[in-house]
Amino acid sequence: MRQDSAKIQGLIAPVIQAMGFDLWGLEYQLHGNSALLRVFIDADAGVTLDDCAAVSDQVSGVLDVEDPIPVAYRLEVSSPGVNRPLFEAGHYARYQGEKIKLRTQWPVEGRRNFSGVIQKADPDVVELLVDDELIQVPLQAVARARLLGELEVRKSRS
Which PANTHER family does its entry note (predicted)? Predict the structure, then answer.
């Protein structure tokens, strides 16, 4: 995690936890004179739109006081959703056996894009089954990863 992201996470995690939510992760993108901060929250009971709005208000207050972002920024708060992003080793371990899409910062075994099933994860490496081949991807190389979740669609009763 970049230093600026780590600083922001350290500021907002206690606030989010005090509200009864888990900070699933964050994405911080700096674009010249502006920035985008995406904050993903989770809870055992799920996350509602009202929850996201309440967390956004509290996080915004902390960021206004502490001022860790040197430019104008947009704050987005949401649940991780079905296709949730994976940010840390524990996320990969939690979803062992699930299909993910992963992009690396540099080529790993000659490629940067992977779609496969998590076989195992440790603090440094995630092992994926990709096209009947086991591939070990260093977590340090991961630029972004998401679950490829499936929604169950139910037919309404008529």
Answer: RIBOSOME MATURATION FACTOR RIMP
